[in-house]
Every structure is written in C-alpha cells, then in structure tokens.
Amino acid sequence: MRITEEPKTTRHPLSILVVEDDEPVRRSLAGFLSDRYETVVEAANGKEAFDWLCQRTFDAAITDIRMPHLDGIGLLKEIHKNYPAVETIVVTGYADIDTAIEASRHRAFDYIRKPYDLIQVDATLRKILAKKQAAEQTERERMRIVARDRFLALGALTTSIMHEINNPNAVIFGGVELIRNRFLAPLAASELQNEIDAVAGYSLAQVTRSLQAVKKASERIDDLVRRVSSIAGGQLNVPRVADLRENVDAVLLSLGSERTKNILVVSPTSGPASMVKAYPEEVRQVASILIENALEAVADVPDPSIRVEFGTDECGTLAIEDNGLGDLKPLDRIFDPFVTTKRDRPGRGLGLFIVRQIMDQLGGAVHAEPVSTGGLRFTAVWPVSPETGA
Amino acid sequence: MKERILIVDDEKDLTELLAAMLEPLGHEIHCAHSAKDALAMTEIRPYPIILLDIRLPDGDGTELIPKFKSFNPFAQIIMMTAYTSMENVVYCLERGALDYFTKPFRDTEAIMATIQNAAERIARWRKAIPMFPR
C-alpha cells in the first residue's frame, strides 16, 4: 500500500484510487499516473480499497476484477452504493462480455483490457476530469442563481414589509405632532394650565414629555425603515416609470462581454423612447432572469445564439430568444414556482415565477413559445408609460 | 375661507388623521382610499384642493394629477409619499403638483400652512373670476 502525493503544478486535480493485486503492474500504473494527477493512492485488493474509501475522498477508482479479498465487482457494488461520486474504471485480463455487462450494471465509467494501455487510461481519466469540472461549474452556477433569486425575493419582501410599517408610523408621528402643536402648546401657554393640571392629576408638561417619547420612538422606526429600504434597494411610493432599453442595456453590461458575446440585440433604429410603466429594478430583474436563463439554455449547444429584441410597435415589448435546450415539456407551467426549464442544470424554478409575479403586478404580460431552432422565446409585454414619445 | 378638500390615501388611519388635522381649519374634508373612488368623487364635483398619495392600490397617484386638472384646472394638488428623491419631486411638480410631502410628516405645521395658502389662493381666484368652478 503506497500513497504518492506531491504538489506539482502541472498535474491535474484528480484524486485516483488504483486497485490491483499484481504489485509490479500496480506500481508502474501508479507511477505513470502520479506524474499526471495530483493524488494517486494504491490498494492491493478490494478490502484495502474499501479501507481507503472510508478515509479519503476520491474522484476515480481504477480496479482490477480478479483479486483476493473482495473482488472488483464486489468493490464496484460497494462504490456504486456508498460512494456514487467516485467514477470507476474496470480493468481485466479476461475480456469477457459478462464482466463488462456486470461492470456496466454497477455504473462503471469505462472498461479497459489488460495489459494496461496507459494512453487509454490517461484519456479516460481526462474524460472523468472534464465531467467533474463541468459538474463543479454547474454547481457554482446553480449556487449563484439560488443566491440571486433569494436576494431578489428577500429584497421585494423587505420593501413591502417596510411599506406596511411606514404607513401606520406616519399616522403615529403625525398624530403626536398635531396634539403637541395644536392642543398642548396653546393650553400650556394659557392661563388654564394650572386648572387643567389639577383636574387631570397630570401636568401638561408631563403629558408633553410622554408625547415627546412617543415621537422619538416613531422617529426611530422611521430611521430603521429608511435604512433597511435603502439596503434592500426597494422603492416606495415613487413614480413607476423606466426606460426599457436603457435598463436592459444595463443588465447586459453587468453580465460582462465574455458572457454576452453570443447575444444579438435587435432594436428599432428610430421610434418612440421605450418608457414603460415599471420601476427600473423591475425591468432589470425581469431582463436579468430571462437573459440568464437563455445563457444557461445555450451553455451546451455548439453554436449558441441569443436574440434580445425590442418591439417596434407602440407597446413596450422585450423578447428574448435562444437556440438552446430549454425544456419544452411543461410549457404551460414554466411560470409556476419550482418548475424548471433547465434539463441538466437544476435551478430552483423560481426565476420565471418571479418574472410572472412582477409582470402581473405591473399589469403587463409574459409568455413563452418554442421556436424552430429548438430553443425558447420569451416575450414580456410592458404597459407603456404616458412618457413614451415625449 | 372654507374649501372642499379631497384626501386620497389607501391608509385609512392616515386620512382620518389628516381629516382631524384639517377640519378645525374650517374646511370640508372628503376621503378616498383608491384612485377609482377619487376619480368618481371628483367627477361628481371637482375639488379645489387635493392631498394625493403616490402609490395607490389601483394605480399611480401621479397619473391622477392631469385627470384632476382636467376637471378643475385650478386644482391645488399636494403629493404625499414615503420616500423622496429629487427626481420624484421634479416628476410630480412637472405634472402640475403644488407641493410634495414625505410620510411620516416631519412638519405637520408646514402641511397645514400649505393647505391654508392653497385655500387663500383659491378664495382670491374665486373672487376675481366670476365663472370659477363651484
């Protein structure tokens, strides 16, 4: 049992378990691999391999079939059941079809004949490496989307809560001001003051003081609402008007030139300004979700292309079309929560739900349709602001 | 001078407070809690002074300004809103609003003074213009 683990920058980031009972063969294979991959661990039989699997995390296991103490198939079963992330390469001197079928039943990544063709082993490991890196990329992307959706949802929720708090607080604040200025102050200045104090059992000064405390508390609520709202980025009680084109451009710019290199923007060269009845954040949220969905849909197609089209007619329309692999099946349900269009790259299914929510709320509409290129076309129709053409 | 004042805000407690604040000044106060109600009430008889919230459950208060003005071009419209920025104030003033206050009202006296000024202006016009809308 040997472990080779030396840092060397040129080696690929893969952790490999080599299981082979023939020591010279194992040594040479491990030696070859340890020049190319970061971590190579040797095991002389299935039992030793099992012990290693308990101790460390591997990306791949290369296993012989005929071995003492837990053979290759037994080890495959164990890995398939308990370590599904470990990709397996099965090696055997007996190139029989039954072994191959048995190995594939336990989800072996590849099947290699003895004697070892080192180039073939290396090529297979490269495939495993590519698969692992793609999975990591997908996971990073998914986490980013989850974080973004959560942030958007939280921001919208916070803004509406702050609005609900602000309204009653305005009543408290205004009421206190009215009582103080128009009632207590004139009374305190009048000659009736001593009589009132005697009847009420409290002096006007004391009542004024307690009202001052209520006003201070109300001011604190106001400060809190303002601070939280500015963090959440929410807008309360501002005119709902935004330039569609300008805000979509801002989203494209924020994505960076590398991610937007396959995006074609189509817009009428002349025509009215695209002022729509929506908050700028609402336009940016909808555009950003639709564009990022399109980017995901085309991630795996050979000639990715996305069209971002602005309507030529009077109403504010924004269409985003991709030639990707978005799932068409639940076309009537894709705007429902937790329904995802992403075949292999799971999202949380909240993006399009948020889009529908926003468009409904502002009195617009959004729909999806399949297009001849195999992708999807999303069209968002915005209510037009009276600003248009002004 | 007694004037008819319309207060438009979906927060009933706030319209109640403003009514209590302005009635003692001698005005006749009416409240509406939606854009639809506000327009319906204005159609029956236009108001010379209107206190108007920007975010209403069924619409944007700023869009009501030209409608109120079409019923009574002399209407003095005072906007109320939660937050303020220069753009918002300019937006409302450009559409013909007279003044702009943020909620909570830091200065209730200033609101009352604005209402009184508006009422005095209306009274002056009423005297000078025989055909002034009733």
How would you characterize this protein structure?
- The complex is a heterodimer of chains A (about 400) and B (about 130).
- Helix content of chain A is about 50%, strand content about 15%.
- Chain A is built from ten helices and 13 strands.
- Chain A has helices at about 25-35, 45-55, 70-80, 95-105, 120-190, 195-200, 205-230, 245-255, 280-295, 350-360; strands spanning about 5, 10-20, 35-45, 60-65, 85-90, 110-115, 240-245, 265, 275, 305-310, 315-320, 365-370, 375-380.
- Chain A has a six-stranded mixed sheet, sandwiched between helices. In chain A, strands 8-10-11-13-12 form a five-stranded mixed sheet, covered by helices on one side. In chain A, strands 7-9 form a two-stranded antiparallel ribbon.
- In chain A, helix 5 (about 120-190) runs antiparallel to helix 7.
- The longest helix of chain A is centred in the middle third of the chain and has 72 residues, at about 120-190.
- Chain B has about 130 residues and is of the alpha/beta class.
- Chain B is built from five helices and seven strands.
- Classes of the chains: A alpha/beta (about 400), B alpha/beta (about 130).
- Chains A and B meet through helix 5 and helix 7 of A and helix 1 and helix 4 of B.
Short description:
The complex is a heterodimer of chains A (390) and B (134). Chain A is 49% helix and 17% strand.
